[in-house]
Amino acid sequence: MHMSDSNSKPHLLIVDDEAEVRGVLRDLLSDSYGCAEAASAEEALAELRANDYQLVISDITMSGMSGLEMIPHVKVISPDTVIVMISGMQTIESAINALRLGAFDYLMKPFDLRQAEAAVSRALNHHELIVAKRRYETQLEELVAQRTAELDEALGSLENAYRSTLKALTAALETRDAETHGHSERVVTFSLRLGREYGLTTPQMKALEFGSLLHDIGKIGVPDAILRKPAKLTDEEWIRMREHPMHGQQILRGIKFLEGAARVVAQHHEKWDGSGYPLGLKSEDIDICARIFSVADAFDAITSDRVYRQGRSYDAAAGELDEWSGRQFDPKVVEAFHRVPQEDWEELRRQSLTRQPHDSEWGPVAQAIESKLSAPVS
Prior knowledge:
Layout: E1 11-15, H1 19-29, E2 34-38, H2 41-50, E3 55-59, H3 67-77, E4 82-88, H4 92-101, E5 105-109, H5 113-174, H6 183-198, H7 202-213, H8 224-227, H9 235-241, H10 244-252, H11 259-267, H12 288-303, H13 314-324, H14 331-339, H15 342-354, H16 363-373
Parallel strand pairs: 1-2, 1-3, 3-4, 4-5
Helix pairs in contact: 2-3, 3-4, 5-16, 6-7, 6-12, 6-15, 7-11, 7-12, 10-11, 11-12, 12-13
């Protein structure tokens, strides 16, 4: 076996069980190319595993594995290597089969040396195109990956900015209703845990998060005289209060990334049996995120302290959810609630009570929004 010492030349592997044929091709090509020889297909495959070759020139008919049988193995070991087959006049059909199997070209015995040089030149030009195409594809993939990572980072930053702004708005709204201070933060936490247990998709989880956070945004349209009234509301005042889901939907209308959240805002007071408001939607006509929020919201309401009562225990809340399952709540969501261990719910509540939303990084934004909300509502 002989290989040219020049690493700058293209490397060719000449495969033939006749030493004379290998010698003729080596003498013809060695001035321009680095040439190695193999006396069989098996020897050629071993050489390809050990070294890189741009071109394999192989006889079709050899003892042991034939040149045709060798082609698929070459494609596996060295996919970019170009193959030129040598065929006798009596095996023209084999030459055509070689092309079908992936050979680039073939030479007929006895071959003209000029034709052999031309075939080698064409094959190496083809190899350069293959390599250039692969390099371009690799660079394109790397560029796409880089741009995708940059876009993901930008979208993540934008989403975090949205989240901070929405939390600030929610915190400001809660200053109008001291009784529910921290409620939105807690109900987001509970809703996301329940949504994960239920098996929501990532887009649904985002809709649930923002919808839970903004569920009472429509109360911006409810006058303080009604919202903060210490006594029981009149029938007329209840009508005004029950308009807040639709007010919220109107506020969020046209904001693309809050489309899913807007459904939670609009439907969070609908009930499984159709007795809810504002539209009286029933069972699965109610958005799944709104159904999940409804259970999380009820759990928070039952277990939280109010001016007129203390929060009740986990067992009391779980019992009440069971009692209203199939009437107010989706039974499957209630089942998902029970699959979450009691200690998980208690830990989530404990964590939510240690957080002070107004002291966070978006506190100044909340204060600015709060000052706008303190103006009289028309």
